[in-house]
Design brief:
Layout lengths: L18 E2 L2 H8 L3 H12 L4 E4 L1 H8 L7 E4 L3 H7 L4 E4 L4 E6 L2 E7 L1 E4 L9 E4 L3 H6 L9 E3 L4 E3 L4 H7 L1 E2 L5 H7 L2 H10 L8 E2 L1 H6 L1
Parallel strand pairs: 3-6, 11-12
Antiparallel strand pairs: 1-10, 2-3, 2-9, 4-5, 5-6, 7-8, 9-10
Helix pairs in contact: 1-3
Amino acid sequence: MEINLRNYEFGKESDLVGMPLTPNINQFLDKLPDELISVLNKIALANGGVWLVGGAVRDAALGIYPNDIDIATDLEPASLLTIFPNAIETGIAFGTITIKSGKYHFQTTTLRSEENYSDNRRPNSVNWETSLKSDLERRDFTINAMAIDVARELLYDPHNGRNDISRGIIRAVGNAYQRLSEDGLRIMRAYRFSDRKDKGVCYLENSLVVSI
């Protein structure tokens, strides 16, 4: 039986096996604004799976409170716009809307897979997914391919991004050459993520260096 001590609604479960949260991520969840909790609960009550993803999870793991918090859900954009009629259609073709809640704006994206990057920047087509596993597999680096189920207090880290953070390594998800060829800006991102300011430098994993 699931126990919810924080008044969160439980959304659909992930198709991944979760792990306990780190102390840094626990501290991050303790500081989540009520406006975000409201958004997560509304998606869960609509029978959606809902997770925090991307840079917010990476920063939280590093002990940094993120500037932006992004949401992933298995609800399609049309359903989200029904729940949040005042949302901004930020990138509807890619499943992204921006939900306004109080003074906050939360970028929310439908789980997706992608096909072909003929311009080396954006996918030619996207397919809506119900699989968090598939969605995380399309992401650039392992440190950005983690997700949090806030209500269940679980971390999903299928590509060992947490270990790479602790070891100070920037590693591609899957084939490094393929990840970089999909989006040319990922090379610059890799170097940007490698500079941890006062926390030191992360090193690019060898297959990533060779692919650059």
